[in-house]
Write a structure and sequence with these properties.
The structure holds two protein chains of two kinds. Chain A is globular. Chain A is an alpha/beta fold. Chain A starts with a strand and ends in an 18-residue tail after the last helix. Chain A has two domains: 226 residues, Rossmann fold, CATH 3.40.50.300; 134 residues, no CATH class. In chain A, helix 4 packs across helix 5 and helix 5 packs parallel to helix 6. Chain A has an eight-stranded mixed sheet with strand order 6-7-8-3-9-10-12-11, sandwiched between helices. In chain A, strands 2-1-4-5 form a four-stranded antiparallel sheet. Chain B folds into two domains: 85 residues, no CATH class; 281 residues, MetI-like (MetI-like fold, Orthogonal Bundle). Chain B contains 13 helices and no strands. Chain B starts with 17 loop residues before the first helix and ends in a 6-residue tail after the last helix. The chains are: A alpha/beta, B mainly alpha. At the A-B interface, strand 1, helix 1, helix 3 and helix 13 of A face helix 1, helix 3, helix 4, helix 10 and helix 11 of B. The structure holds adenosine-5'-triphosphate, iron/sulfur cluster and magnesium ion (MG). The site of iron/sulfur cluster has 13 residues of chain A, from loops.
């Protein structure tokens, strides 16, 4: 049994309206039936465009949001059913690193107090000295100097702040750390340092990670298994190399084609798919295959009516698409109704100014920080292939 | 109006352009009530959002509260805006705010006025040239015949209708007036913060039950807010009878809903901050989260409000005294009472009314100036 197993997890946020009395008028289906398992000591990468529910899923694992339905089995216990106090205690073993390093640190606490808080909550360390010793050890591990102890978060750089966030999680000696876009708020030059640190820590401490990113380049290096999310559910899951070598789901193909390849020859000739349309609203997701409104391979009726399940096509490679085999064999070509234009060779998808138009503004900032972090698959232009 | 309007996280707007993102930190949320604002999702706390308890029961939009909605909204807005900036820049916000305050003429004038007033209130009884209650010049003033004594060498501001030294009464009265203002504000602050704090804590971290508690409390608070404050104060004073304590309580009660709503709004904004989520994920207990994280970071706007309320309290206390609900005990001169008593002789000796009135106005102005300057320093966007 895996260390962490999710089965059919749903998180629906009620949408309320009302003058005098609150009425629930609908639900935002942020996470809608996700099953996955994470092996001890491994890294599960979770990718998907902005708003697809990655953060919500990450929070659901720690039960920071209410789980509407499904099981989150960690080390044999279903966290979704745990009483509040027991859940609180199990959080020692499941920690989180946040996207916004500064925002996730209380501006009025110094580093020692930030790091001691978790130990305090779980009764780790009897004396102040004992705790301080442990804190200093962890600070050393994440590469922060001892004199950081008495400083406040705003006195550090972005990368250092994220190290503080990592130290805060580490000090509790957790088994699993969920990293929600751990580097997307950082400069590109610092991103690599933090990713390397996470990898080192995993090697030294045998940690299990769930790494969330909207950027395929980030998860590629550290993930053993990658899950691709679209509108609240997984569309493809595969061992990292496998997914990169042969993406099967049309959405994954589109995401991949947004990542530039270093080799100019390959870059010029590779297949590029840009998606039309906007991400549908999670409060009113499309029937049938959730991706059918934007899928270039969409087939009549079946895609619109029947929701494809995540099925194993061999070697742990799972895809949720009715026509995965036909697409792979070339039997089906992308429909021209959705892909009217062929892109010119010179036009790189990441340079496309419309590339962010569907993303929220936070993503716009990210896109500026590096070419590899262009919003995947959110292009507002034509879809097409370029052989 | 949407009930989740105070969620920093909005459903995504497909037609948001990247340009919006760049401009967002400065434009900020135009109104906390508007949904789908692209700016709101880029605010520093945006990524923190997702706290389902905070989703519900936010806007209590009953017909009763409609009348005062704008007031309530303004309070919430102040709470949110100041709170949000605070998370983004930490202690440096206070440093920056103080620097802005120091260079603001408004703040300096306000501070000087308050300084003088406070000093007078403290040392007044010692520097007063005569006893404020002794009718030493009883024989020189005949109010029924319209004979008053104006400023002269021994009595700089003249005598009152009972032959007491006006300057001494003003100096000693300053202390009473300050006392009324402070006690009334304290009542409003303590009770209001308690109600708002409980309500905010319940809503932010108390799950569904908390939402219910908050909804009930806030509807009550909104009802209080909907009543004209002076009417409320007069009713309380009328029930409790005539005394200085009555005035303090009546004026204080009026401030309760304002403080309550402000603190609650501010706490709510903080409760959605990432560091609160981080504390929860560490396994920190709810009580500690509220007391150690949410509350200390929510106090900024409340402190500003305290300064502003001091001004209102002094004026309202004077108004109640003027209406004859204050303390008529001559042993304790108080500006509001002095004003009330001098109105009978306004034709013959207008200055007897002008002195305490000026005192009240200038003092209230001082607190207002400082309060507004502090508000601006904490959030320049509210300037307009
Ligand atoms: N507390 C909440 N109440 C209502 N809706 C929410 C809440 N939190 C998130 N949502 C909605 O759920 C959906 C998924 O949000 P989530 O934050 O999980 O996306 P994400 O994949 O992490 O996106 P991003 O890359 O922007 O971080 C979004 O449509 C969002 O508006
Ligand atoms: S099921 Fe149909 S719409 Fe969905 S991804 Fe496959 S081909 Fe596209
Ligand atoms: Mg996210």
């Amino acid at each position: 049994m895996s260390l962490l197993e999710l089965s059919d997890v749903k998180v629906h946020f009620p949408v309320r309206k009302g003058i005098l009395f609150d009425r629930v008028v609908g639900h935002v289906q942020a996470v809608d039936g996700i099953s996955l398992s994470v092996e001890a000591g491994q890294t599960y990468g979770l990718v998907g465009e902005s708003g697809c529910g990655k953060t919500t899923l990450g929070r659901a694992i720690l039960r920071l949001v209410d789980i509407t339905d499904g099981e989150v089995v960690f080390d044999g216990t279903d966290l979704a059913q745990l009483p509040e106090e027991e859940m609180r205690r199990s959080r020692r073993r499941l920690q989180m690193v946040f996207q916004d390093p500064l925002g996730s640190l209380n501006p009025r606490q110094n580093i020692e107090s930030i790091l001691a808080e978790g130990m305090d909550a779980h009764g780790i360390g009897d004396t102040r000295e004992e705790r301080r010793e442990r804190i200093l050890k962890v600070l050393d591990r994440v590469g922060l100097p001892d004199h950081a102890l008495g400083r406040y978060p705003h006195e550090f750089s972005g990368g250092q702040r994220q190290r503080i966030g990592i130290a805060r999680a580490l000090v509790l000696e957790p088994d699993v750390i969920i990293c929600d876009e751990p580097v997307s708020a950082l400069d590109v030059s610092i991103q690599a340092q933090v990713i390397n640190l996470l990898e080192e820590l995993q090697e030294q401490l045998g940690l299990t990670y769930v790494v969330i990113a909207h950027d395929l380049a980030v998860v590629r290096h550290i993930s053993d298994v990658i899950g691709v999310m679209y509108l609240g559910s997984l569309v493809e899951e595969a061992p990292s190399d496998d997914l990169y070598a042969s993406p099967r789901h049309p959405y994954t193909k589109a995401l991949m084609s947004a990542v530039p390849v270093p080799d100019p020859e390959v870059e010029d000739t590779r297949e590029r798919i840009l998606l039309t349309g906007d991400l549908p609203s999670p409060s009113n997701p499309p029937a049938g295959c959730r991706f059918h409104t934007r899928c270039p391979w969409r087939q009549p009726t079946r895609c619109d009516t029947e929701r494809p399940g995540l099925t194993d096509i061999g070697g742990g490679h799972k895809v949720a698409c009715h026509f995965v085999n036909e697409i792979a064999s070339g039997e089906l070509a992308p429909t021209s109704a959705l892909a009217p234009d062929m892109l010119g060779d010179s036009e790189s998808p990441v340079d496309d100014p419309g590339g962010d138009s569907a993303g929220d503004s936070g993503e716009g900032e990210d896109a500026a920080s590096g070419p590899a972090s262009g919003a995947p698959g959110s292009g507002g232009k034509a879809a097409g292939t370029n052989a | 109006m949407s009930t989740e309007s105070n969620e920093p996280r909005e459903p995504r707007e497909p037609d948001t352009t990247p340009a919006d993102g760049a401009a967002a930190p400065e434009t900020d949320a135009p109104e906390p009530g508007t949904t789908g604002s692209p700016a709101a999702s880029t605010a520093p706390t945006a990524s923190t959002a997702g706290d389902p308890p905070a989703t519900g029961a936010e806007r209590t939009d009953s017909p009763l509260t409609k009348a005062r909605m704008s007031k309530g909204d303004k309070i919430d807005r102040l709470a949110q805006l100041t709170a949000r900036r605070e998370t983004s820049s930490g202690d440096s916000l206070w440093v920056a705010a103080f620097r802005r305050l120091r260079s603001s003429k408004m703040a300096i004038i306000g501070a000087v006025i308050i300084g003088v007033f406070v000093v007078l209130a403290i040392i007044g009884p010692w520097i007063a040239p005569y006893s404020p209650t002794a009718q030493s010049w009883r024989g020189e003033v005949f109010s029924n015949r319209g004979i008053f004594v104006g400023p002269r060498a021994e009595n700089w501001l003249g005598l009152d209708n009972l032959g007491r030294d006006e300057l001494s009464r003003l100096l000693v009265g300053a202390r009473q007036t300050l006392l009324v203002g402070i006690v009334a504000t304290l009542i409003g602050f303590v009770v209001g913060a308690l109600i708002g704090g409980v309500s905010g804590a319940a809503l932010a971290l108390g799950g569904r039950v908390g939402q219910r508690i908050d909804a009930v409390v806030m509807r009550f608070i909104d009802m209080m807010l909907a009543l004209p404050s002076l009417l409320l104060a007069v009713s309380i004073a009328a029930v409790m009878g005539q005394s200085l304590t009555t005035v303090m309580i009546a004026v204080g009660v009026v401030q309760i809903p304002i403080f309550a709503r402000l603190l609650r709004g501010s706490m709510l904004a903080q409760a959605n901050a990432d560091y609160v989520l981080a504390a929860r994920s560490l396994g920190v207990k709810r009580r500690r989260i509220v007391l150690a994280h949410v509350l200390p970071n929510s106090l900024g706007p409340v402190i500003v409000q305290t300064t502003l309320v001091l001004a209102t309290a002094i004026i309202e206390a004077a108004a109640l005294s003027f209406l004859g609900l204050g303390n008529l005990d001559a042993a304790q001169p108080e500006w509001g009472v002095m004003l009330a008593q001098s109105q009978r002789f306004f034709d013959q000796a207008p200055m007897l009314a002008v002195y305490p009135a000026l005192g009240i106005i200038i003092t209230a102005l001082g607190f207002t100036l400082l309060g507004e300057a502090m508000r601006e320093a904490l959030d320049p966007k509210l300037r307009s």
